[in-house]
Amino acid sequence: MDVSIAIDFTLSNMEITDYRSLHRMNKGEMNQYEKAIFEVCNVMMPYAQNGMFKAYGFGGIPIYTGNDKVSRIWNLNGLKDPKVRHSDGVLLSYQKAIHGTKLAGPSYFAGLLNKIRSEIHENIT
Predict the structure, then answer these.
(1) What sign for the dihedral angle of Cα 61, 6, 1, 117?
(2) pTM of the predicted protein model
(3) DSSP assignments along the chain, one per residue
(4) b or e along 5-31 (b: 16 or more beta carbons within 10 Å of the residue's beta carbon)?
(5) Residue 24's pLDDT band (boundaries 50, 70, 90)?
(6) Other CB atoms within 10 A of residue 116 CB
(7) Whole-angstrom distance, CA of residue 114 vs CA of residue 34
């Protein structure tokens, strides 16, 4: 089974410098997103084919990928293939992405849902 995970980079989460931000980086401790990624990926690991997760970002401007416009969905690792290995791979991709993405918006889920739905359809047929 394929397991896909998507990270919300919309400004509704507040800038990473804001103490209320779910993306706030504190030395020596995980932020709210890192904790959620770690926990969810570990729970989903038995279902992830070969320990691989398809990891996406949405709602931000992923400058680290060479993009300068709001992207409704992109591969979190910045590569052509969205797959990363284990929860560590998702965490590393997120950590790279959060420092290279300008939070923006709005929160459009349609592109993300359509992408995952088309992947499911490809795997079934």
Answers:
(1) negative
(2) 0.89
(3) --EEEEEE-BGGG--TTSTT-TT--BTTB--HHHHHHHHHHHHHGGGSGGGEEEEEEESEEEGGGT--S-BS-EETTSSSS-EEEHHHHHHHHHHHHHHSEEEB-----HHHHHHHHHHHHHHH-
(4) bbbbbbeebeebeeeebbbbeeeeeeb
(5) very high
(6) 16
(7) 25
